[in-house]
Amino acid sequence: MSAKSSLSREQRGSSDVARGVKSLAVLASLVALVCGCTEASSPPAVAPQAPTASAEGVFQPEGLSELGYAQLSPAESALVSGRVVDPAGQPLARFTVRALLFEHINFPQSVGTRELQDVHDGAFELAGLQPGRMVIEASAPGFAASFSAPLATTAGSSTKNVEVRLSLGGTLTGRVIDAHTADAIPGAEVRVFDAYELWLDPAQLNRPHALTDAKGGFTLEHVPAGDGSLLVRCAGYAQLELSDVHADEGQTRELPLLALAQGATVAGVVHGLDGAPLAGANVQLSAAAESGGNRTARTDAAGRFRIEHVVPGTYQLSATRPEASKVDPFELIGDMRRSQREIVVAEQQSYEFELHLDEKPR
Q: Residue 76 and residue 360: Cα distance in Å, rounded?
């Protein structure tokens, strides 16, 4: 899915970046599965370790993050300070700021977050940041998430007087229905979605979201102006992803009906190196196109797996041994290549596959 926003080209990147993020999500989902998750769907929730604040209230990374960034000394890290203002240029007293890093990786990573209250001059300071190319994002109740101009930080640098001017954003309304019966679907989650939040823990997500009411209706307020994306999820249905959803500053736009389908079921057996059914194997279902999402599962004691409500489309289906990534990352890649097969699934259909981790021709 191509995730866009009203940011500059440098801030939001191209659609190729969003596609790169989605492909990297395949490996991240699998790593999360190895670490103990039993099932996952795109967009994945993989994030650096949650930041903490020092006694002075300045952000400091704690220990080693999941992406491998160790705690940095002042000489190794960057500091960014500035203020957050409203559309009229008046400083805010309550807001959240976070630094989004673009250096060394092809997708944004949140490397520092502070939530501030009772701030009279709108001032903020983020210290201990991984240096590189970044933007500062600010959000506050009643406003759309907004961004600073791009910053180039280096080890030991201090960037001051950064201003983030918040906007009110636009409003999106609509209804979610069953694709087959046209009945309203209450309780569906509708969320504004972009590449910035792909790799964050769900607790860190701050884009507008809502649950549909008894008539399937929803309202999303303070949506960043410009083109973005929408994610719709509900138990018992395949998730729906829409790109190029446009919001206008200060305007309300009604979206076309959003129809959720039940999707397909993908099941089967994973065979280990000895040819026998393998318990605890990790199964990865990766969408070949920009929609559909990535799904993971783990085999049961009989070596069987089952993934339900899969968005119709073309996928790569593969498996790895339970211990593959713990010993050698190349083993994980080898398992995926040996077992991988391309599949095509259709709405309300069930499929059975056998995945083999050995190298015997079939």
A: 50
Q: Is 155 left (phi over 0), alpha (psi -120 to 50) or beta?
A: beta
Give me the domain span that covers residue 143: 47-165
At position 2, the amino acid (one-letter code) is S
- Same-domain status, 66 and 115: yes
Q: What is the number of other CB atoms lying within 10 angstroms of the CB of residue 311? A: 23
Tell me what pLDDT residue 30 has. 45
Q: How confident is the model at residue 323 (pLDDT cuts 50, 70, 90)?
A: confident
Which of 350, 357, 11, 285 lies closest to 164, judged by CA?
11
Cβ–Cβ contacts within 10 Å for residue 196, how many?
A: 27
pLDDT at 212 over 60: yes
Residues 20 and 80 in one domain: no
Using CA atoms, how far apart are residues 324 and 332, in angstroms rounded to an integer? 5
The DSSP bridge pattern shows strands 158-165 and 78-85 to be parallel
**Structural domains of the chain, count:** 3
Question: Does the pLDDT value for residue 348 go beyond 90?
Answer: yes
Stated length of the chain: 362
pLDDT number for residue 326: 64
Q: Which residues contact 29 (CB under 8 A, 6 or more apart)?
A: 40, 42, 44, 46, 284, 294, 295, 296
pLDDT at 80: 96
d(CA 211, CA 220): 10
CA–CA separation, 4 and 195 (whole Å):
8
CATH code for the domain in which residue 345 is found: 2.60.40.10
Decide: 346 and 312 in contact? Cβ < 8 Å: yes
